[in-house]
Amino acid sequence: MERRKVFLLAVLPLFAAALALHLLSGFRLADIPGLVSAVLRFEAESFDEAVLLYQRLPRSLIAIYVGAVTAACGLVLQSLVRNPLASPATMGVNAGAALFMVTGTLVFGLGPKLQGVAALGGALAGFISCFAVARFAGRRNDTRGLSLILSGALVSMLFTGVTNAILLADPARRSEFLSWVIGTINHAYVDRLILFWWIGAAAIVAFMLLARPLTLILFGAEKAASTGVNVLLVYSIAILAAVSGAGSAVAVCGPIGFVGLVVPHIVRPLVGNNLTHALPASMATGAIVCLLADLFAREALYPHILNTGLVTDLVGGIVFVVIVKRFYLSPVHREAA
Asked: What domains are defined for the chain?
């Protein structure tokens, strides 16, 4: 209880510090008061102020949105499927959204609004494909849920391969998506954030409204049903919200992988499994992770800028190995299996 209170009290100052670093790194200390004033009046009177308002601020907003929504979706997916490796990146959601958006744009010529619709459809298709492959592989006989994650990896590789093939088939336009498909937080994508932010917001509202019944479901569907929870309805709404929220994040800036996997494992030991507390903590932590990852991508090799997705994939891949070793390869879990 004490640890949870400390974390919940600390997470907002940490978020404010990460946001300040993301916005103001690289500027001279003497210029910071003027830059803060420019943000408050939302008017640029110098080059530095223009950089802050029209490049740094949009990047920060995108990073906050993607980090918060993806982390919340990852937490809910892990809770619903009862698998510590579940996330939009490992269950085909991100890859499906990327495939449908690239296909819709390059093959069918969809405009920005319909690109978002395509991304949502692809996210759902990726999730359904993951479960279909897992069921075909005998998921019901897999008590540890490993087949579900392997199915997600297979679906993601397949969808990513098709996406790359479509990009290679259209050399004239593939430059539009070469950076996006790896996952990149860029101020140029702020128009997409304006178009799709409400989808992630709606998903988060749904999660918060369902936080109590989702927490009860963690103790077992039968126990939750005995308290009056409509388990099937809650499952359906939560899954749809998680897939839609993750798909909207991909529609904005491409697949930023592993945030939805890593953040719940940071938050859960500190605040517990009660989603009433874990959801806001995950959203704040996800925003912090994305802000810091984008800051590193922007500043580490300056003047060259890395894709934010490369940074999250590097860190997330290492954490993925640690989680696999802990939950699937440790002697305790091998004996339990």
From this structure: 2-330 (1.10.3470.10)
Cβ atoms within 10 Å, residue 283? 25
**Measured between alpha carbons, how far is residue 250 from residues 52, 63, 96 in Å?**
24, 12, 10
- Reading the block at residue 227, the tokens are 């308290």
CA 4 to each of CA 71, 108, 178, 286: distance values in angstroms, whole numbers, following the listed order:
18, 49, 42, 17
CA distance readout (Å), 162 to 102, 246, 251, 332: 10, 20, 18, 39
In sequence order, which residues have a C-beta less than 8 Å from that of residue 64 and are 6 or more positions away?
19, 287, 290, 291
What tens digit of pLDDT does each residue of 78-128 get? 999 888 889 999 999 999 999 999 999 999 989 988 999 999 999 999 999
Nearest one of 280, 292, 263, 287 to 8, comparing CA atoms: 280
